[in-house]
Design a protein that fits this description.
Elements (H helix, E strand, L loop, with lengths): L1 E7 L7 E9 L2 E7 H7 L5 E3 L3 E5 L1 E6 L15 H12 L4 H17 L2 E8 L3 H9 L2 E8 L7 H18 L5 E7 L7 H14 L3 E5 L3 H9 L7 H7 L11 H7 L8 E5 L5 H9 L3 E4 L1 H6 L7 H6 L4 E3 L4 H4 L4 H16 L7 H8 L1 H6 L17 E5 L11 H8 L5 E6 L2 E5 L2 E2 L4 H16 L1
Parallel strand pairs: 1-4, 1-5, 6-7, 7-8, 8-9, 10-11, 11-12, 12-13
Antiparallel strand pairs: 1-2, 2-3, 5-14, 14-15, 15-16, 16-17
Helix pairs in contact: 3-4, 3-18, 14-15, 15-17
The site of zinc ion has 6 residues, from loops.
Amino acid sequence: MILAARYVLPVAAPHIEYGAVLVRDDRIVEIGELSAMRAAHPEETVRDFGLAALMPGLVDLHTHLEYTAMRGLVDDLPYAEWKLQVLEKESLLDSEDWEDAAMLGALEALRSGITTVADLTDSGAAVRAVNTSGMRAVVYREVQTMDKRRVAEVMDSAQNDIAEWKSSASGDLLTVGIAPHSAYSCHPELFRQVSDYAIATGTPVATHLAGSREEYEFVKYGASRLAFEYRQKWGADIPWLPTGVSPVQYVLQWGLMDVPELLAVHCTQVDEHDIDVIASKDVAVAFCPRCNAKLGMGVLPLRKLLNRGVRVGIGTDSPASNNTMDMFDEMRIGLLIQRAVDAHEQFHVARKFVKLGTFDSARALRMEHTVGSLEPGKAADIIAVDLSHTHQLPTQYPYSTVVHAANQDNVIFTMVDGRVLYDEGEWMTMDVERLKARAEELRVKLRS
Ligand SMILES: [Zn+2]
């Protein structure tokens, strides 16, 4: 099949006007101008999206699909208070609720042109959601305990889940990892054991790291709401002493940076020494601009990380915090925030942010040889973004139109591994009406 549009944005190369992508089975075979491709392959059917951009599927480098249930629930509180409230609400949902919440997340992701997610879950709901939806994913099994006596049990249960989740996938779209939640919710012994396990098995690891001032003060000074209210509520009677170091230096001490693949999420509270560690240990970083801004978590030092060669990509961090899985908003707001604080040093351009949300996010997951750009031989993870709306006309520079004048609503077509999963209002793998009805039930439950 030939997919065609006014603009093809390969990401790894400049855009092509009146371009086309030849897809056979699950692969991209050829990219070029539509007229030449039609002439070379007269037998192929052509799907022409008109004034639209064909581009690689977006790679959401950090989310929690099951948190879609929490959309709009806690909107106006800073990070530590937000976290406390969300944790309290979690207890209102049962396993079926989590399943459907994750399905709602997958529904939104496909509708928004997200073809790969890097998801953190402890219920496993995300595994079912990505398998059902047909999306590509790295799902990390979340682990946490501040109680050293519980570490072995937590690791056992995680390893069982990881084995089960790996066997649940039919093709190669699912990768399973492990995720110690954060420095304020994991005992050092848990970091140590996760590290040993990841090194022995080659399992990828993700963790929330240096994401808020509250976390920084908790680790370094033993202070902040995370040290008191959070621990009172969830950490029981386990003592916690100031460590005198930053969160990055702290997890370094416990071996977490020795794993083969570490994805650090947020990294808004990092200094030059921390950036040295992140760069020298080849840690990948998930930049979540809207969540970081909305919860007052700080600003990621993007220029400094990129200048040190750190693999940075973009994540949404779920509707519980930002309120939509809209990677266009993330690209646009991320770009604007970085310009607002850093323009005197570096003026980032739109095309770079499209790359951050696609190829660079894939590279952060070591998947850049498979997805993240439109190139012959790569997997056919392709989306079409409608650029024909009045607020987008005229379209001068398509990379910049996508960043500055498009959003999730403009996605009209989502293909993963050569399979069409969303096409102009229709989802091929999901029961939309049932999930919308369930969203209302979840809303009522969470308000009780
Ligand atoms: Zn998160």
